Fold this protein.
Amino acid sequence: MSDTLFSRIIRREIPADIVFEDEHVLAFRDIQPQAPVHVLFIPKNPIATLNDVAPCDAELLGRLMLAAADFARQQGFADQGYRVVMNCNRDGGQSVYHIHLHLLAGRQMVWPPG
Ligand code: DGP
């Protein structure tokens, strides 16, 4: 896939407020936060959309979820609650084609989402 700005964040070519990093996952604060806490969890190995995920990526997807839940616990809002979202393609509202899990917290979420 072509390079995305998230790959440039991974390479530190674009600044970001990074809150977590390990061998597989990077997490940083969204530049346009939609909640008091809005963090994006991305795989370092870029995949364009959820449609492009293969069975061999199952562990990687799990790592994104686990990293988000760990972050929520560490930050102290896990019990209060939060939302994780992955947008896919145009109707899903995806704008950056490097999969990312949004973690939103710090306010009451509404359903259905917009
Ligand atoms: P989505 O619409 O699901 O593809 O989400 C992409 C998110 O990425 C959106 O909430 C805004 C965020 N974003 C876009 N450009 C940048 C950037 O340069 N830095 C950071 N930290 N976030 C960005």
